[in-house]
Amino acid sequence: MNNVQLLQQPVAPSTCNKPIELYIFIDPLCEKALLMQMTLRKLQVEYGHYFTCRYVLSTELSALNSITSRMKGCVSGAELDITHPALPSIAIKAAELQGKRAGFRYLNKVQEVAVLNTRNINSHATLIEIAQQVNLDMDEFVSDFGSKEAARAFQCDLYLTREMEVEEIPSIVFFNECIEDEGLKVSGSYNYEVYEHILAELLGEELNRQPVPTLDDLFDHFSILTTAEVAEIYSINEQLAERELKKRMLQQKVERIMTDEITLWRAK
Question: What pTM was computed for the model?
C-alpha cells in the first residue's frame, strides 16, 4: 500500500478516552465519500470502542466571503433562496456548532438527500429543511448558518487539509493518544481489512471485535442504510441482505426508497 505515510506534525489528540482518533477527509457530496462511509460504518460497528471520528470537509471552494454576505440577506428575508456549492459544507459546520452528534446527523441527512437527488442540495432553502428534519435548534442553526463562524470553521477544515498535505479525497489520518507520535495518513480508499490491520498495528494488540448488533439495533444507530451497507456489515451477499430487509418492510419496521442507481432503507 503506497499511499500510507507518517505525518511529521501531529495535532492535539482528542480528550475522549478512546485510544485512537480518525481524521476523515471527505468531500461530503462525492460518490467516493459515500463508498467510504460503508467501510467506516462496519468499522464503527465492530471496533467503535477503540476510536472516535472527526470529519474534515475538504472541498476546495472560492468566494466564501461573498456567499456569507448573500446568506445574511436570506436570513433577513431580503432573498428567498440562494444556491452555491459551498453551502452544504457551511451548513454542516453550522450544525456541528450544536455538538458532534448533531453534526453527524446533519451530515448523514445531507448525503441522503444528495443520493436521492430529489431536491437541490446546494440550495439554502433545502439545507434549512434538512436542519428541521434532523431536529436541530432552528433559531440557532439559521443564525449560525448565516454567520462568519460557520464559514470560518469550513475554512479551517480546508486549511487543515492543506497543512496535513492531504492531496487525495477521501483520506484518513490515524492518531493515537500519545501526542508525540506521528499520525498515519492513508490516502484514498481501501478494503476493510486494511483499516482493520492499521487499527491493530496502532494499538499493538489483537483487536477485540464487538458482536454484530441485530438489524433493528443497527437501524436505531444509523436510521438509514443501503442494501450494500447491510451486506457489508453482516458479511453476507446483497441478495440475502435485501431478503431480510424486505421482511422488515412487511413488518413496517423500515421503508424502502428506490432510485435508478441505489436502494435506501429508512427506519420507521
Answer: 0.85
